[in-house]
Amino acid sequence: MDKFEKTNLEFESAVAECRELFSQKLHDYRASWRILRPQSLTDQLFIKAKRIRQLEVTGCSMVGEGIRPEFIGLVNYGIVGLIQLECGFADTVDMENDEAMRLYDRYAQEALALMKRKNHDYDEAWRGMRVSSYTDLILTKIERVKEMEDIASRGDATKVSEGIDANYMDIINYSVFGLIKLGGE
Questions:
Q1: By C-alpha distance, which of 120, 16, 33 is closest to 75?
Q2: Tens-place pLDDT, residues 104-159
Q3: pTM greater than 0.85
Q4: Among candidates 73, 174, 168, which has minimal Cα distance to 127?
Q5: What is the C-alpha to C-alpha distance for residues 37 and 42, in angstroms, rounded to an integer?
Q6: How many CB atoms lie within 10 A of CB 76?
Q7: Burial class of residue 56, CB neighbours in 10 A (0-12, 13-18, 19+)
Q8: What does the pLDDT look like over 45-83, one tens digit per residue?
Q9: How far apart are CA 59 and CA 40, in angstroms?
Q10: Cα dihedral sign for 154, 157, 161, 163?
Q11: Where are the alpha helices (DSSP H) in 123-163?
Q12: If you count Cβ atoms within 10 Å of the first and of the last residue's Cβ in the chain, which end, N or C, has fewer?
């Protein structure tokens, strides 16, 4: 097995773990996240990434959960963000669980395809990075999304941005890399 095949398998395994939790939460809460407006979703991503950074800096968790669950949350909320960009937000839960899972799987596959292309071009550079760098890059991507949302709220358009969807994809992929690097911690 070459290095790229190994990464693909690790990526798919990490996303399967995220998918399982997403499915369980759908069972318990349905697609309650459909109510989240774009800014609220961005803030949810921010909270998760900020908590990871705090745990990395202090090494202390007062609620007993570590970094790994937060990376899983970033993957799942990143995919929710992509779904929300496509479908818009709703005032009520307007999506059946089967449809939410179908969309989840589609965006997870798109994230995998993007990772494969970038991983080829960057030759597995992510393996030489520290997990804390993924956190900082994720926080940077979130700040970019906030700025793009603010620009749009003023009725203006970005000039050179890849777009919010590209930033969500990068957040998902950096989070998966974090999960892979952390292993079973």
A1: 16
A2: 999 999 999 999 999 999 999 999 999 999 999 999 999 999 999 999 999 999 99
A3: yes
A4: 174
A5: 9
A6: 22
A7: middle
A8: 999 999 999 999 998 888 878 999 999 999 999 999 999
A9: 27
A10: positive
A11: 131-153
A12: N
